[in-house]
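Q: MTH1187 family thiamine-binding protein, please. Structure only.
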Amino acid sequence: MIVAFSVTPLGVGEDVGEYVADAVRVVRESGLPNRTDAMFTSVEGEWDEVMDVVRRAVAAVEARAPRVSLVLKADIRPGVTDGLTSKVETVERHLAE
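A: Structure for MTH1187 family thiamine-binding protein:
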């Protein structure tokens, strides 16, 4: 499964990059395939391990912010691995045609 999620600290002002970095650090240290862009962090793995990473990423932000917003989207597709790379490669292949 691939989960794209965004953790946003609330009540800490406009500059939230430092807080978001705490969440992304948890994801990167998990060892699961992941990718971060301007809006979301995507992580790939089995249900329990991915949801544990999301939970810990939220907890990292929650430890320093009075309120946290979580947006999550999941692609649950058993038997598919390396979706983070293969999905993008498929689109790029079509764009190159």
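A: Brief note, in case it's useful. The chain has a mean pLDDT of 95.
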